[in-house]
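cron nightly-structures :: item 1 of 1
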Amino acid sequence: MEWNPEVVRRVRGAMQDRARSQACLFKAFSSVMTREQAEALAREGIAEYGRIRAERDGRKLAPEDWMNEHYTMMGGVFETEISDTEEYCEMKMHYCPLLEEWKKMGLSPEDQDLFCDVAMELDRNRAKEHGIPCDIVERLGKGDPFCRVVLWKKKKD
């Protein structure tokens, strides 16, 4: 599939703005509370966004629906590879506009990893709302070569 380069550029820009605002909010929170408290609030807020995002989906998604919608709408933004087996759907994202913004901001590798994991609360909680077991196996933010999200088709034992 080919994506419109201008649309990819604009969506990446919007996501970079989101990354910068997340970092600025975390810095502000950390100035009046402990880092751990700021992290807990950030996770809570992004988790709520995940619940809202699931609600906005307008219907219960199956793993295949999620993967196909992500690929169709955002595959070019994240340079996504997808695979579908009997057990799971998998997305490997080779580029992250959020992480690129945090790098541009000069954030430490530790903060990049933390903010990446916090941002993934969106996906974890969206999946939870849809009843989809979800594993985030690898993340660019922790230094892996890509982000790998596995959406299981059946409850894991």
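cron nightly-structures :: done
The longest strand covers residues 88-93.
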